Amino acid sequence: MTAASREGWLDNAVRQLAWDERRLNQLSGEKGSMNWTLTTLTELRPALIMTPSRTSQVPELPYRTLVWLTYRLAAMFALGLPFVLLIWASVRREASMVRLLTIYWKIASLLAISVLLLTDQRPIGYLTTFLAPLLMVASVWFWVDLNEELADLPPWRPLPLTVRIWRWALSGFGLIAAAMASTSLACMKDVAGANCRVWFEAPQGLHRVAERLFDFVFGGQWTEAVAAFIGYVALVAYVVGLLQWLLVRLPRQGRVAGEF
């Protein structure tokens, strides 16, 4: 073997050893990476099992949606249906149901007072909003004579049947509305919270409609301060009338509707 061929053979051997070393290092690195990956997955597996899935959680309804739902239910069960029933009972000349619905509307006026007070963000409006549905439910079940007269009516007749269904529906609405309004009682101390301002949206929306109508019909201004003032005056009259009934008529007449 010549010197030149010996040097070429040595160069090839050195290159082969270098390539084998790189290949061995590469295989070692892949094996270490694989081992690290398996170790990591093994360690994370219990955590993944114990962690609750986000997709399995049911999202809660926003508070604003629930408040607006309460207002819409009030428009249906506390205002719309009893108004239709009062007209229907008047046309059919059903005296007992006319008396029942007339008493109901007197008590339900507290709901309108609450809207006037909340229009100008008056804290007492939260309290009246809580009390109004409870008093409305009580007003349709409290009277013994009206309950007996309604029970004596044929159950298959459309008007008595509708009134019975409405009373139960109103009772369910009243409990839901009172529960929702109870969450806002803390707003009587501070009306600046986000959940507190939600209760102003519907009354202020009605106020804007009334403002346009008042300006169109009378050419005057219907401001939030005027609405709150009328609300306070009506609230005083409401409380005076309720106290008079509690202190004078209730001890004398009991649960008889009479001339309420």
Descriptors for this entry?
260 residues; mainly alpha; globular; 0% strand; 81% helix
Can you walk through the features of this model?
There is one protein chain. The protein is mainly alpha-helical and 260 residues long. The protein has one domain (63-253). The protein is 81% helix and 0% strand. It is built from eight helices and no strands. Helix 2 crosses helix 7.
Mean pLDDT equals 81
C-alpha end-to-end distance: 131 Å
Q: Indicate the low-confidence ranges by residue numbers.
A: 29-60
* Silhouette: globular
- Give the count of helical stretches: 8
Order of helices and strands, N to C?
HHHHHHHH
Instruction: Report the biggest beta sheet as strand number plus sense, adding barrel if it closes.
Output: none
Total number of beta strands: 0
Strand content: under 5%
* Category from helices, strands and their pairing: mainly alpha
Task: Indicate the percent of residues in helices.
Answer: over 70%
What's the number of domains? 1
Radius of gyration: 37 Å
Detail the topology: elements first, then pairings.
Layout lengths: L2 H48 L12 H30 L2 H25 L4 H18 L2 H9 L5 H25 L11 H25 L5 H30 L7
